Structure formats: C-alpha cells, structure tokens
Amino acid sequence: MAVVVCFAPLGNQLLAQTDQNNSRTEQSNMNDSVLLKPWTGPYQGVPPWNQVRPDEFVAAFDSAIASAEDEIDTIAENPKPPTFENTVVAMEQAGAALDRLDAIFGVYTSNLNLGSIPDIERVVAPKLSAHSDRIYQNDKLFARLKAIYESDEKDSLTTAQQRLVDDLYKTFVRQGAMLDDSQKARLSQINAQLARLFTDFSQNVLEDEKRFVTWIENESDLAGLPDSVKAAMKRAAAERGKPDAWAVTNTRSSMDPFLTYSENRPLREKVWRTYYNRCDNGDEHDNNELITEILSLRRERAKLLGYPTHAHWRLESSMAKTPEATMELMQKVWPKAVQRVHEEVADMQKIADAELSGDDAITIEPWDYRYYAEKVRKDKYDLDFGEVKPYLQLEKLREGMFFVAGELFGLSFEPVTDVPVFHPDVRVWRVLDRQGNDVGLWYFDPYARDGKRSGAWMTAYRVQENIDHPITPIVSNNSNFIPGGDGETVLISWDDAVTLFHEFGHALHGLCSDVTYPSQAGTSVPRDYVEFPSQLLEHWLDTPEVMQQFCVHYQTGKPLPQELIDKIKNASKFNQGFATVEYLASAIVDMKLHTSDRERIDPDQFEKETLQQIGMPNELPMRHRTPHFSHIFSSDSYSAGYYSYLWADALTADAAEAFEQAGSFYDPQLAKSLHENVFSVGDTIDPADGFRAFRGRDVDTSALLRKRGFQ
Q1: For the segment 65-75, what is each residue's pLDDT rounded down to a tens digit?
Q2: Catalytic site residue 328?
Q3: Pick from 18-32, 142-156, 669-683: least confident
Q4: Which of 229, 227, 245, 228 is nearest to 237 (CA)?
Q5: What is the C-alpha to C-alpha distance for residues 58 and 69, in angstroms, rounded to an integer?
Q6: What's the predicted TM-score (pTM) here?
Q7: Residue 153: which CATH number?
Q8: 56, 503, 582, 619: which one is catalytic?
C-alpha cells in the first residue's frame, strides 16, 4: 500500500551517503534480509523482532522503496484501460515489503530510540518523503485514477469502493498531482525539508526528557509523596547510578504525581519548570528555530497547493472541514471552562490561605494547581485518590479491559509465548471471536525506559484486509508506567487508568475492523473521528461491572468499597476547568499558528500573545507548550488537528448518553450497533453517517457541556 506510506517523526540532517555503486551492492545484498521478507510464523506471520539488525535499516529502505516504485510504475504503465481492479486495487497491494519494514522501524523510533537509531532516522525520513512525492507526482498514475474517478464504472462500485476512489483521487490532488513541473519540484523540496525538521524536533524532545532529572538527596524532601511514588523515584535514581538518591525524571508520568502530592513547594516549582521548559532553554536542543522553519514551510506549501493556510489544507478531508468550524466548537466551550478554572482557583486559594499566613502566604501558581486541587477534592468530596490507587493494579485493569471487549464485542484474549518481542517488557495475546476464530494479535508494552517516547499510544503493525483472502490485524498498546520491583504490584493512578482504557479503545478499533481494503481499515479514519472510539471506551472503566470485579486491593483482594465508588462518581466533574483549559489552550494555539498569515513566527512570542488574547488563566499552563508540542511538530499528522480530541468528545458524550438512557453500558443492542456502525467499518462510510446510524440522529454537541459539568 505504498501510496499511503506515512512515517512518524522525521528529521533534519542527512548523513554522508555511499556512492551509487556501493548503494546498489547493498541493495542486492539485502535480498536475504529478514527486514524485507514476508513475515513467517504463526498467526499469518509476525514481526521478526529477534532477527532485526539495525545496521541493515538504511539499505533495506533503499531496496524496499525501489521495489515499491517498480510496482507503482508497473501499474502506471499498464497498457490496458484503467479499471478499479487494475489500478486502485493494485495500488492497495503495492509496497507490501515497505509497509512491513516501516512498521518495524516505527517501533524502533518510538520504543527503542537509542544508539544509531536517531542518525538512521535522519537518513531514512527524507527518503520516505521523496518516495511519497514520486507516487503522488506520477502523471501517468494520476491520469489512470482521474479516468476512474470520472468514469461510468464508478457508479457501479460499492459505497466503500466509491469512497476509496474519491479519497485516493482527492489525496493525489491535495498532494500536488495537478501542479506543474516546477511547482512539483518545489513541493518535493519543502516536504524533504519538513521531513528532516520533524525528526530533529522529535529527537530534541527525547533528549530533553532524558537529560534533565530533578535529584532529591534528603528523604525529608519527599514529604507528602505516597510510598509507591517514592519507590518509583528510588528505582529511577538507582537506574541512573545514584542508589542513595531519588529521581524525578522529565516525563509526565513522573512529573504529575510529584506535583500532585509533594509538600515541598520549591521542589514542585523546580520540577514544573523543568518539565514545561523542555526544548525552550536556548541550547542545542531548543526547538524554537525549528518550529519557525516548519511553520514557514507549511505556509508556503499550503499557498503552493492553493489553500489559504495550512489549517485549510489539513482540514479539508476531516469531519470539521474548516478551521472556522473547529474554532466555533472550541469557543463554545472555552469561556465556560475558564470560568470554572477561576472557581477552582478560588477554592484552592481558600485552603492555602487557611494553611499559610503572614510571610508564608502564597498565591496559587501553576506548580500549586495539582497539589491544592487534591486538597479541594478531599475537602469537597472527601475523596483522596491516594486511597483509590491501591485498588488500581495494572494487571487487574488489563483483565478488566479484556472483560469489556468480551462483553461488548465477544472477543477473548489468550496469552501466547510463541512469537518474538522487541523488548522483555512486551507481552502478546491472541484475540479470538465468539466462534473461536482468530481476530488478531495484541501486544502490550507498558513500561517507561530510555529511548521510549513519553505518553501512551496505539500502533498497528499490520492492518486488517480481505482482498484476496482475510488478513488479521496486529496491534499494540504502549504506555510509560513505572515498573515495580521484584514481586512488587504495579499500581497506577486513576488518570492513568482512564488513559489505559482510552488507548485500548484504539486497539479495539483496529482489531474489530471488517473491511476489504487496507487503507480503509481500523483507525484509518479522519483525524477528528479517530479519537471517538477510544474516548468512548474510557466510560467503561467506572462501570460497576469493572469497578467491582477488577478494581481490587493489591494486598487484601477486596473490591473497591462502594463508598469510594460513590465518591468517584460524585467527583467526576471535579477539576474539569483545569483539564479542559490546559487542553483547549494547546488546541487553540495550534489552530492559530496554522491560520496565521505571518511569514515568520517567533513561537514563544506567538504563544504568549495568543494566551493573553484568549484570557488564559495565569494559574495553569498549556498541556503541551509549543517548543515540545510533538503532536503538531513531529509530523503533519495532528498539525492543525489537536482540536480533534474535543470534536471527538462531542460525539463521545452524546454516544455515552445513549448507553445511560438504555440503562447499561453493556446493553447488547447498543453494543451490536456500536460494533456494526463504528468499530468495524473503518473508513468505508462517511463517519457522520456511521454516527447517525448508531445514534439515530446527528450529534447533540450540548452533551459535551453536560459531560464536563458546564451546563
């Protein structure tokens, strides 16, 4: 499927290249490389992680790209009249070796980014960019697609096939197929430059997460921290050669609990500043200049392609369609969320004033927000999430996710040990349907480590298809939980449990896929729809069935007490001001950056000005400050698209109300409809039609305000 090749974080420097003769020799020697061969083993073949040699990546990409382009040229040069089968289906099947290689290398850049991988990525990224351009700028191939797009044959195709033709043709146009030769050449230069800049941006973020550590030498400075947090900090320090100290690493999974529980205000400020100033320190890993270049190139590319801004170009194929539509939804929520923040801060300030007076008095600052929010939660709802955490065992929650998948979609999970993995932390499950048929494989990589990017995500190693015969998907969930010591139970926070279910929702979207063509499979849907299934699955975490069976105390085995469950329910809308504003500030800055008509943008200045203009409260930051905003600067994928979480949450809130009105989140009729109209259909239908079929009407966006307690 070479036409839809996309690559995670792309880079900024080319290493010295060997001469053409050496390159050809390397390619010919790659014939026996496991990186290029079809995957073997059980379950229709699995990634051969145990045989990967990173030093073969560059030559393997050269060979795979050459093969993919030969296949594309064969399609373009076909002397027979263009048909759906000999052109569109043939393109769906082209580039299989490159797809497999890209899946393996993508795991290395995301999960194993150490040693030579950053330099290899800087070589490979521009190659993939150039390859993509050569496909989209192939005049003969585009002529065949255009003929099918305008032919009578199209009317006889199925809805999914027509959608595939439409999407493919429009994608070619949006990628420059109708430009003249000089414009195409400039577009390729822009894409190559962006590919290099994306990689440099990503590598800088990784470096700042690795190299900045807040060291704590005195145990008295750990006051307020739960034992599990202190133990994780002790292990992090030992891994870094300081067994007598405690370490707060520069990742959200380490920063967040420290800011929530630490009584040491100066240390909270230090940890906060270290985290939120990533790649904004004026050193060799500062990203500001890279961002200026990325924005300038995106602006030029959009103009070249005939769009007013980068945002207009990106949103054309989304549900929202225009930047104006995204801003309308965000502005509907923003003032209510800001007002809620002011209320939350007032509650915090009352507690701070009662605790501290005179010279010790404080005004709530960003590094105080999480700490005093917990105090307010205890005061208002008598809820201390520290009391909940002993009931949130990672492994039991994983079992809870499997239970939900079984109840909703009839899936069961069997652990397997007959497949290779890329790290000892990784485990694999075989996924079966109600009849015992293979559905796919699910890989789980839960723990933080050096070389692994922060956050949580889902990856598809192989997508589902059914062109010649059924192909089952292989997907993974990747997180950054702190591993326990020997025999120690891994406990996670409530927010992390929500994220765990969220990412599993993406995995289920891939596993439940039931389409014919791979480019329409699973999560291959518009960016502002892809978060809908995952955000919806979050709602099953706090269902009684999961809470009572799988939220059990790690020592006693007793279920979470009903009293605590009631408190969690009562406090479900607590702190929504913080959660909504920190997210929306990032989404609004993203959209304004990509609709700006400025030729050169100073990222720090633009961020500051924009936050002032929209009335950003001083007491909290953007969730992702611009210098480390990987969603929008490590690739094009979420650029001008960070709003999509809110757009999808409007769908989510309305869909959740359907289950509430049915009286159960396990209602069999609704679960069946959810599978048929959302989880299984991929991009074979317009997502608005799929939601309408599930809900029986268009989305009611006021459900979003009700969900967040703003109405």
Answers
A1: 999 999 999 99
A2: no
A3: 18-32
A4: 245
A5: 17
A6: 0.92
A7: 1.10.1370.40
A8: 503
